[in-house]
Amino acid sequence: MDGKSNFRNKNYSEGIPYATIKRMPIYYRFLGDLANKEVERVSSRELAVKMGINPSQLRQDLSYFGSFGQQGYGYRVNELLQEISRILGLNQPLNMVLIGAGHLGTALANYENFGRRGFVITAIFDNNPAKIGDFVSGILIHDIKELRQYLQSNLVDVGIIATPAEFAQEAANQLIEEGVKGIWNFAPVSLKTPEEVIVENVHISESLLLLSFKLQQKRLP
Amino acid sequence: MDGKSNFRNKNYSEGIPYATIKRMPIYYRFLGDLANKEVERVSSRELAVKMGINPSQLRQDLSYFGSFGQQGYGYRVNELLQEISRILGLNQPLNMVLIGAGHLGTALANYENFGRRGFVITAIFDNNPAKIGDFVSGILIHDIKELRQYLQSNLVDVGIIATPAEFAQEAANQLIEEGVKGIWNFAPVSLKTPEEVIVENVHISESLLLLSFKLQQKRLP
Predict the structure, then answer these.
(1) Gap between the terminal Cα atoms of chain B
(2) Closest approach of chain B CAs to the CA of A13, in angstroms?
(3) Touching check for B36 and chain A: CB below 8 Å?
(4) pLDDT by residue for chain B (221 residues), tens digit each?
(5) Is residue B215 within 8 angstroms of chain A, CB to CB?
């Protein structure tokens, strides 16, 4: 910790409500927007209104991480953004491998914002001989058979699973057995993983089914 | 309602915990897997274990929608799958338009499972002259300038927003002004929408930031 930082260096997630944790990326996004517009300071009220939450909720959220801002002055946008980046772990790069070079995998590999935030995809893996050896966004597609060896010789923090459902668990198993601690899963399956591995799921279809459900509700008398 | 159905035709979402609603797509997925394997019946215990929830939670969830299954026999997989499909609104097709033919939009347009479930993308819109007139997965890419007119002459239930952040609100405004009631938003913005419009967000980057946060937590002493 450097001397300037005023947040407590502790395991935040203990004792912090999950709702607060889930809002951290949203604070990050809104503060990033303000920083891009070269806004220098923001009151908790303004920021809360933008985010559609209560100002006291915002102050409560940030209080879990230390004391930010000053009464009557508000927050310095750049300072708060930096602190939140640090809280989110964005001060050190995350090395990622992508498994599955289909349409979704390709979209993820092409996502420009990752690099800016220190998320780097170092290799892609697929089982389709027609794709192996190609590049997506400058990243080589390897044979999935080389995954284990790659993980053994490279530091990988996160495995992105963008395979069809039936290959996802096997991909997860290999990642876990080779020591990868984070899995970002896009396959429509519930992965079986040991407790120490962190899994974030993006279940795209489930989101559409929820939308369908809610629309259906509106149609009913 | 046909005579066979035993679920109550009411507005489910009133009084039903959101956690239950969010599990419906997961029941749908697990029951679909069982049906694909031609499993005929399943006990609440088996299904709950597969889903990693409590059997009593499962029975409670389903009780909101009517009485399913029989003591000591369990659920008929196909029957329960049908009922849940109906609850999710999958018995009538949803017409969707896709705005944004970038990598993510292309991935969505190519997603094969949509069609099987009655989700149909009828048109794609983009502002890139190089893309307009092309087809993705057999669907024509129109000029975004034609969006309003298209919405006026076609029944559209859902607008999928897969544009960069800065175009998302304008796309949403046009959809809403032309009467679209559902928005499936992939742009990293919080859309301003009237209450009667249902928005489901898939904030892909936020999911990665959460993963980063949790990994960061593990690294701290």
Answers:
(1) 59
(2) 7
(3) no
(4) 333 333 444 455 567 788 888 889 999 999 998 998 999 999 989 999 888 888 899 988 988 877 777 777 788 999 999 989 988 888 888 999 999 999 999 999 998 778 778 899 999 999 999 999 999 999 999 999 999 999 999 999 999 999 999 999 999 999 999 999 999 999 988 899 999 999 999 999 899 999 999 998 887 66
(5) yes
Strands A158-161 and A94-99: parallel
Question: Which of A103, A201, A219 faces B106 most closely, judged by CB atoms?
Answer: A103
Question: Residue A120 in contact with residue A94, Cβ under 8 Å?
Answer: yes
Model confidence, pTM:
0.85
Q: Which residues, at least 6 apart from A164, have a Cβ–Cβ distance to it below 8 Å?
A: A100, A102, A187
> HSE (CB half, 13 Å, CA atoms) of A75?
28
Instruction: Quote the tokens at residue B67.
Output: 């009485």
Closest partner CB to A217 (pick from B12, B28, B29): B12
CB-CB: which of A108, A181, A209 is closest to B28? Answer: A209
Contact A12 B217 (CB under 8 A): yes
Which of A 126-155 lie inside 8 A of B, CB atoms? Answer: none
The answer to whether the Cβ–Cβ distance between A181 and B215 falls below 8 Å is yes
Domains, chain B, ranges and CATH?
18-86 (1.10.10.10), 94-206 (3.40.50.720)
